């Protein structure tokens, strides 16, 4: 079993750096560099991560290597996007981010984090939502293995660039 630990405010800088690095590595080639830089500065800065860690509605769990470097993390919290009108929101929560370092893919880190996230969600809600990029087939397949299903389209804006994401839902 991969050891999961809850993040603390002292982890905010490392989480923000890991998130920005993961996003850039995976998707950076899609965007104009100025749009990407603006997005990353606003999307997940350390101050925002610290605020979320202080908010009891959020939880961030980490997996680290022997040198304490982050191998992966999951951020759970309230739904903060506009769902399609037919989707219930009453006691729903969101999987905001699940990122795993390339070197840790296929090692069980993502599975451990996902199982932790689903357990966290089940203790608080009856529905778990997430968004996923339409062209991220690996992530979509991973989420479908857990029973998530597509419930609609979401626009994801990075500067002037608009991507199509999909809303996925898991009934808990």
The shape, in one word, is: globular
Q: What is CATH's topology name?
A: Aminopeptidase
Spell out the helices and strands N to C: EHHHEEEHEHEE
- Tell me how many strands there are: 7
Contiguous uncertain segments of 5+ residues: none
CATH class descriptor name: Alpha Beta
Neighbour order of strands in the largest sheet? 1-2-3-4-5-7-6
Describe the main β-sheet briefly: 7 strands, mixed
CATH superfamily: Gcn5-related N-acetyltransferase (GNAT)
What is the domain tally? 1
The radius of gyration over CA amounts to 15 Å
Question: Which tags fit this structure?
Answer:
seven-stranded mixed beta sheet, 172 residues, 7 strands, Aminopeptidase, alpha+beta
Explain what the structure shows:
This protein is α+β, with helices and mostly antiparallel strands. It has one domain: Aminopeptidase. Helices cover 34% and strands 31% of the residues. It has five helices and seven strands; from the N terminus they run E-H-H-H-E-E-E-H-E-H-E-E. Strand 2 and strand 3 (70-78) form a beta hairpin. The chain starts with a strand and ends with a strand.
């Amino acid at each position: 079993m991969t050891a999961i630990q809850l993040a603390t405010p002292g982890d905010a800088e490392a989480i923000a750096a890991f998130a920005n690095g993961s996003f850039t590595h995976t998707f950076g080639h899609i965007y104009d560099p100025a749009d990407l830089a603006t997005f990353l500065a606003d999307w997940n800065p350390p101050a925002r991560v610290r605020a979320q860690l202080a908010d009891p509605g959020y939880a961030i769990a980490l997996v680290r290597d022997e040198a304490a470097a982050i191998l992966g993390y999951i951020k759970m919290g309230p739904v903060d996007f506009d769902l399609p009108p037919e989707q219930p929101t009453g006691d729903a929560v969101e999987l905001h981010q699940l990122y795993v370092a390339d070197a840790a893919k296929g090692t069980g880190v993502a599975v451990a984090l996902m199982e932790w996230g689903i357990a966290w969600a089940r203790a608080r809600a009856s529905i778990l939502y997430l968004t996923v990029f339409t062209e991220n087939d690996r992530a979509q397949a991973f989420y479908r293995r857990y029973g998530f299903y597509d419930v609609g389209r979401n626009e994801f804006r990075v500067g002037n660039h608009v991507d199509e994401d999909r809303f996925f839902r898991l009934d808990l």
